[in-house]
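Predict the holo structure. Ligand: uridine-5'-diphosphate.
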Amino acid sequence: MKILVLGGAGYIGSHTVYRLIEQGHQAVVFDNLETGYEKAVHKDAKFYKGDLRNKADIDKVLDQEKDIDAVIHFAANSLVGESMVKPLKYYDNNIYGTKVLLESLVSHGIKNIVFSSTAATYGEPVNTPILESDPTVPTNCYGETKRAMERMFYWTEKAHGIKYVSLRYFNACGAHIDGNIGEAHNPESHLIPIILQVANGTRDHISIFGTDYDTKDGTCIRDYIHVTDLAQAHILAVEYLLNGGESDIFNLGNGVGFSVKEVIETARKVTGKEIKVVEESRRAGDPAVLIASSEKAKRVLNWKPQYDDLSTIIKTAWKWHSTHKNGYM
Ligand code: UDP
């Protein structure tokens, strides 16, 4: 297959490009490098620097790369906290960017797309584990823009026949097993990279945001899913669409929840480092428990996560963080 990966220099995008190439597919990467890194792009992928909000940028790629089988779309802003203080940035990049992309796909006759959605589309869950059919009432602007993207694809399919798969990730984490690419946000806000930055000596402590949640140890519970397992799900979703599958939405998680304190404890065991902790008050917008049911992805896409053990996941992340203290810098 020849796949155009939008946002292929970012965290999940770069791992998907590696996976595609490792499995003998061709990857074309499009990224504005606002949050991605050119160094994260696989050397065998063709790279175009461009911004989805400039229609000429994406039109140029689709004019030149004539035999694209499908698009995988990661190009978005994805920080909950930032989305609450800069909502219009999220509407601009995630929604306007996707609208421009869809116009270009329509005019170039491209009919299959897989894109990143998020557990944040659900808001405060009504069930544990969360099912795809559960209500979507986002409690932050990031989740709202991702839900709006899903609806944009829904209506565009009806008018223009572009089929889509939306993948709602839970907590993406870990790094490529070789340790050459990994998670590098600037500034970093995610739990596991911050813990491992304490372990590698580039940060003093990890702050626990809230110890008074209604959970077993008072800290938030999340479903941590390895980035390579997410990458594989995108490839399976493309194959599903190319084999005639209907547009659909799938959760991607391990179906097991770990508290913030459990993640820190596991990281202490994996790294052998003390990892200083400071307990702080809750972070706005954090639901207490988010756990996915991924039965549908397993059943329909034949998805089989390989890294379902937290200690193994953190080991892969540590391989990256212990050898790349400054990320890609
Ligand atoms: N968290 C924390 N300290 C940090 C970063 C995150 O206690 O420095 C908590 C956060 O409140 C949440 C969990 O760790 O309960 C996972 O947060 P992350 O930002 O990694 O992912 P999110 O769940 O927001 O997608």
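The chain has a mean pLDDT of 97. Residues 80, 171, 189-191, 194, 206-209, 220, 222, 260, 283, 286 surround uridine-5'-diphosphate (CB under 6 Å).
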